[in-house]
Write a structure and sequence with these properties.
Blueprint lengths: L7 H6 L21 E8 L3 E9 L2 E7 L14 E7 L7 E3 L6 E13 L4 H6 L2 E8 L3 E7 L9
Antiparallel strand pairs: 1-2, 1-6, 2-3, 3-4, 5-6, 6-7, 7-8
Bound molecules: manganese (II) ion.
Length: 152
């Protein structure tokens, strides 16, 4: 699900003559100092886009209520298309069309997976990790809801 997907879905969904979002490209994969970013996206429905750098792109989930600081709290995260690494610096207004609305950086930093085999953890739908951001610090997990493809 990682390198194969690339940015095709990202590019297909957007008209770069209209949107200020970065066209980007797949960056060189890194093993250390992996970035994470959370963007507050005031689209038709407000949500928080949670993105983890992996294999030169940003694996992305739309979290309607945003990440919770309470370990007892489970929040829906909808897996969406991989975004280019450049997207992690994007703030701006997306005009009418896909994702129309305001995007603001809400948090960023680095993430460290608990498992060394991140691809398998993603495949299994159970990714545990540490975040070292400004707002988000500590342990979180993304766990796919059983029998559901996109809902974690
Ligand atoms: Mn979004």
């Amino acid at each position: 699900m990682t390198a194969i997907m690339g940015l095709q879905r990202y590019l297909r969904k957007r008209d770069f003559d209209k949107t200020p979002e970065p066209k980007g490209s797949v960056a060189a994969p890194r093993k250390r100092g992996l970035r994470f970013v959370v963007q507050k996206h005031a689209a038709r429905r407000l949500h928080y886009d949670f993105r983890l750098e992996l294999d030169g792109t940003l694996k992305s989930w739309a979290v309607p209520k945003g990440p919770s600081f309470d370990p007892a709290d489970k929040r829906l995260a909808v897996h969406v298309e991989d975004h280019p690494l450049d997207y992690g610096n994007f703030e701006g207004v997306i005009p009418s069309g896909y994702g129309a609305g305001i995007v603001m950086l809400w948090d960023s930093g680095t993430w460290i997976p608990d498992d060394t085999d991140i691809d398998s953890a993603l495949e299994a739908g159970n990714l545990k990790f540490e975040l070292d951001g400004v707002k988000l610090k500590g342990s979180w997990a993304l766990v796919r809801i059983s029998n559901q493809e996109k809902n974690w």
